[in-house]
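note to self: dont lose this again. the chain is below, predicted strucutre after it. 238 aa total, dont forget to put it in the shared folder this time
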Amino acid sequence: MEERRALVRTALGAQPGERILDVGCGPGYYAADLAATVGADGLVVGVDSSPEMLTLAQSRCAGLPNVEFRKGDAAAPPAAEGEFDAALSVQVMEYVTDPTAALEAIGRCLVPGGRLVVWDTDWATLSWHSRDPGRMERVLRVFDEHLAHPSLPRTLAPRLRVAGFSDVRFTCHTAATSELSADTVPGPLVGLVSSFVSGRGGISPDEATAWAAEQHALAESGEAFFACTQFCFTATRT
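---
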């Protein structure tokens, strides 16, 4: 996760004095990271629809006078037109019903020439080892239901252009690991997957628990394998 944050910060290229909008800020990692970069003359505003996430973000950024948080969602960020120099949205757009409209709304919050970074995963690229591949396939198929667009990166470039952005570019980054630590993608994902699929799509609570237990056992024995491809898009408001 730290590597991803570094890649996003590099792609964003924040400068001292800039105003940055973090759409779907979650627990505030990027806000805390960017606060030092923009400095006392800059501002980082995090937006999230979850009160729980906002509470965590406020706690993480306590004492940072150039950081603030607002309740809202990606479809209608609580920001004035042209209020920000740059924006980022990490692992958010794939949950949004209409990403094109959300990107257009974010664009309105940017000054002309303002920069946007969007990071999302094509979950169809996921390769995840299990001794029970049939169960793994069923678990992942059901887990896809928690996303509005499991393979959003495939259509994100044209969506950005339709939403009023130019100079659209993207790079891909592979998340690959044999560990389940909190700083890896599958670390926190195992619990989320198990909780979501339990009782859905014919997967019983016992089966969901057994799936998660197997992943932990594979990690402990050095047999775990997880890989997926994530995409970092950059664009400029026209």
